[in-house]
Each structure stands twice: as structure tokens, then as C-alpha cells.
Amino acid sequence: MLASIENHVRSLLPEIKNGVVAAVSGGLDSMVMLHLLHLCEVPLIVAHVNYGKRGAASDADHQLVLETCTKLEVPCHVIKPDPGELEGGNFQSKARAFRYAFFHQVRLTNNLDWVATAHHHDDQIETQVLKLFRGESFKATQGIKTIDHHQRLFRPLIDVEKQVLHSYAHANGITWREDASNAHATYARNLLRVEVFPKLDERIPGWRKNIIELVNRNSVADELIQEFVLQHVSSDRTSIQIVKLKNLSAPTRSAVIHAFIQNWLPDVTAGQIKEIDTLLSAQPGKQVRLNDKLVVWRNREELTVQKRGVKNDNIDKVIDSIHDMPWKMSIPDINVMMSEAEHVNSIELKKKNVLWLNKSTIKFPLKFRRWIPADTIRPYGMKGNVLVSDLLVARKIRPSHKSDTIVVTAFDGKNCAVIFPHPSDKGLPGCIHHDYRITDVSNGAIKINIEYPI
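and the corresponding C-alpha cells:
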């Protein structure tokens, strides 16, 4: 069993390139992890946080980590927060944010790829039970990953039980420090560990295995939910079809809404998901505010996530002549690049996220501005002008985004192009005026490339 721990860690290393920062507290779990990583010859640097909350005991933890690193000839970075820096509010939450910011700072400073933490099998169970008790969403009750590419976290012990870590430490002469506060039921996690779990072990043998199986089933089900979301969201992943949500059962719908929102707000709560669900039966234009930066709108056919904030309605960007190209403009949620092209073929004309104007008929300077209700344009192929507002409705531009529409006005006063705030129902980035279209006799073109960063 003890040799299998080493083999298990070695089996994970092919994915771990360019070394790790090992988060070491001085406790059993992290000291075993440090021993294993060193044994497996992983390039590493140790990082330790001394909160000073336990006085001499905290300093003893600090000293043990330093002495062990000196013995192993491993660099060690230590930080001690200023008194009062983490006071007020939830200390556990603030302390966690502080130490992870420190770990990643060490990682980036030393050009390493990963932060290694000593979470183990029992931590996995504690975390999942806490999430269930708190009523967190379906997605949140999935397991802690061994390798988290998004957060650059490596957890080599996540499948190893605490009891096995104890045996390994004793067999290999590993010294560690016990945190006396872990025996106090002050925090919810300690309450589970000290009082609840021992009673469950006595009365419901095998419950821990059942929790892990539940986590695994959730992971499989989430793959199906993610596939469903991808089939029914917009190309920029900001909107999802209401009719598809209404056809689902309430529990499945909640899971789908969470999967949809998680790209924008990973820690969305069960309460917020319930609020979003009420939008399905609300009138178009209703919204749910998620935080200071995000809002969910109820449009006629879709739920839409939009970034909040003040838009600059007077962008008034001007390109004076064709000689100023290539030219780029970046405003919230839209990037525009203009360039000159001598020849354009039929394949290029069909490219998405690109508008083409006839260079020989365009009149400079060109002005980019927000649209106003009086704006009109003659869309390509039509005989007369239409209001831009009607064009936005016809192209199914979401009401919550209409104010972000941009018009491009030529020197002769005509609106030669309209740039949509997101791709239309047909995937188009905008519309050009019929008079400025590319023809067989066009002498060159102006390319307007539009990007929609999420």
C-alpha cells in the first residue's frame, strides 16, 4: 500500500511540467506531499504562510517547514500577513484567498506551472458533504480535481485516505505538527470531522464510499448537461433558448442554468439559479442582477448574460483617410479592425465576422458612433432605407444589447455600415449599405473585421 502511494504520484507526473510550488503548512498531509514530491524528483519550491493566529504554535510550524526544506535542499518562501490584514468578516475565506494569491505569486515569479496542495480523500468527502448541506448547485457537488488546468492546481493525494497518510508518515520517519484547532468544532468543517463523521462511521458503514460514487455520477451527468448547453446556446455563449429550458424538468433545468451561467460566474448560488428560473415566466425585459458586473435578461426567446457597467455612448471614433489603415478600435465587448484589400474573392466575402465595403465608392472620413433612433440604412439587396431599430429587430438582436450597436457614417452623411453588438440570428456581424457593396467592377475593398471577446 505504501509503495503504491509513490507509484500513484509518479503516474501523475507526465502531466506536470516545469515544476511546482508546494503549499506546505507543516501538518501531516502537506509534509507527506513534500516528501513524495522530493522523492519523485519533482522540481519544486515550498511556500508557507504563517498566520500567527496560534502564537508559538504557528512559529513552531514555520520553523519545522524551514528546517525540513533546509534538510531537503529545497527553496522555501514564507509570508506572514500583517496584523489585522485578515481581521473582520470570514477569516477562513480571507485566509484562503490570501494564501492562494501568495502561492500563485511565487509560482509566477519563479516561472513554474503548478501549485501543489495536499488535499486528500477525506477532504474530498468533507467538501462534498458541506456543499450538500449548504444547498449548492449540481455542478458544485462534483469532485475536487487531481489536476485543475484552469486554476493551475495539482492535488497528488486527492485519492489517498488520511489513514494511509498516517501510515506512510510513520513508515518513512516524516515529522509533522498537529494543529490543535482542528480538534475544535468551531468551524463547520471541523464539526463534521470531529463530531458528525465518527458517528456516521459507526451507524452507516460505507457512507464515505457512497459519497464518492455520488460525486462520480454527478461528473458523468454533467458531461451530458454540458453537451445540451452547447447545443442550445448562442455562438458567443451569452444566450440560451427559453423554449428548450421550459421543456426540462425543474431539477434538470436548474442544472442546465447553472452550467450556462458558470462560464460567467463560477460561484453562482442555488438562490441565484432560482431567481434566473423565474425569468422564464416573466415578461421580456425583466432581469436578475448577479453582482456588480453581471446581469441576466429575459428577452423574447432567450435568457442573456450581459456585463454591467457604463458604456461610452459617445465613442465618436474617426478614421480620416484610407492611408490611416490598418486601423483598430477597441470598445467594451467589440473589437473592430479596418484594413485595405486590393482583391476579394467569393470565398472571402462569405467569411463570418467580416464586413466588406467598396473602396472606390466610400467617402472618407468615416465616423464610428453609437446608433440613435433616427438612424437608417439601405441593407444590401433592398430598394429602400429601413430604420436601424427595425433592422435590429429583424436580425433578432437582443433588446438588452441594442444600445451597443455601432453605425459607420461616411463623409456624404450615409450610414455605410451597421455593426451589431453580437452576431445576428444568421451569424452575421452587421449590415452594409447597398450603395457600398462589392461588385464585379469594384476597384479594391475595405475590410471591417469584428471580434466579440467574451
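(Above: one complete record from the training split.) The chain is about 35% helix and 20% strand.
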